[in-house]
Amino acid sequence: MLKNILHGGIVLLKPLGDRVIVEVAEEEEQTVGGIVLASNAKEKPQTGKVIAVGAGALSPDGKRLPMSVAEGDVVMYDKYAGSEVKYEGQKYLVMHDKDIMAIVK
């Protein structure tokens, strides 16, 4: 089992292969002009914090390929990447390493 970095609890998901579990960033409640948006009008966030990383994909000759991200990285990912999972009220995405576009510094 993996430790949840942000909450100190236990996450019952361990990503396999080249998969990554990302904690979805909170959605913005209002615009810069102060207008409050309805929940259905908000854009899906495309950033989050990596909380678990798989061992990496296998190459054709059986060697593990290194992952491009590590636990704790804040990342940007494709808009429709991954599968959404909810655990204890928090949203997570399980996605492939290739769906991550950048690490936010």
TrEMBL record:
| Cytoplasm found in the keyword field | yes
Compartmental location: Cytoplasm
What's the stated role of this polypeptide? Together with the chaperonin GroEL, plays an essential role in assisting protein folding. The GroEL-GroES system forms a nano-cage that allows encapsulation of the non-native substrate proteins and provides a physical environment optimized to promote and accelerate protein folding. GroES binds to the apical surface of the GroEL ring, thereby capping the opening of the GroEL channel.
| Keyword annotations of the record | Chaperone, Cytoplasm
Protein's organism: Lacticaseibacillus sharpeae JCM 1186 = DSM 20505
Please state which protein family the record places this protein in. Belongs to the GroES chaperonin family.
Official protein name in the record: Co-chaperonin GroES
- Specify whether Transcription is a keyword of the entry: no
State the superkingdom.
Bacteria
* A GO CC annotation given for this chain: cytoplasm
GO MF, one term, reads: ATP binding
Protein's gene: groES
Q: What is the lineage of its organism?
A: Bacteria, Bacillati, Bacillota, Bacilli, Lactobacillales
